[in-house]
Specification:
- Strands 1-3-2-4-5 form a five-stranded mixed beta sheet.
- The chain has four helices and five strands; from the N terminus they run βαβαβαββα.
- The protein is globular and about 30 Å long.
- β4 and β5 form a beta hairpin.
- It has 105 residues and is an alpha/beta fold.
- It has a single domain, classed as Glutaredoxin (3-Layer(aba) Sandwich).
Length: 105
């Protein structure tokens, strides 16, 4: 199951993770976000134990959203060792996200 990242748990779950992390920045009202959501959930199950995968609601978490200058959603950031190493803006096929994640493993 995809994790729920917040301003409060972001440092611990994302920046301090010893595994690659995917963060899906989304909002309830965003149509393309609803297309990406199920893909994020599938990836979370498929890569359980290998990567940390979750979602961050931009409306409820302005701190992290501003910190990473997320202006458009969905934005998917890929972290390794606490650093952003890859970025995807907009809805894309699952294969695109899998390829980027595989590069980090």
């Amino acid at each position: 199951m995809a994790l729920t990242f917040t301003d409060q748990n972001f440092d611990e779950l994302v920046l301090k993770s010893d595994k690659p992390v995917i963060v899906d920045f989304w909002a309830e009202w965003c149509g393309p976000c609803r297309m990406v959501g199920p893909i994020i959930s599938e990836l979370a199950e498929e890569y359980e134990g290998k990567a940390v995968i979750g979602k961050l609601d931009v409306d409820s978490n302005p701190g992290v959203t501003g910190q990473f200058r997320v202006r458009n959603i969905p934005t998917i950031l890929f972290f390794k060792n606490g650093e952003v190493v890859e970025k995807q803006v907009g809805a894309v096929p699952k294969a695109t996200l899998v390829a980027k994640l595989e590069n980090l493993l």
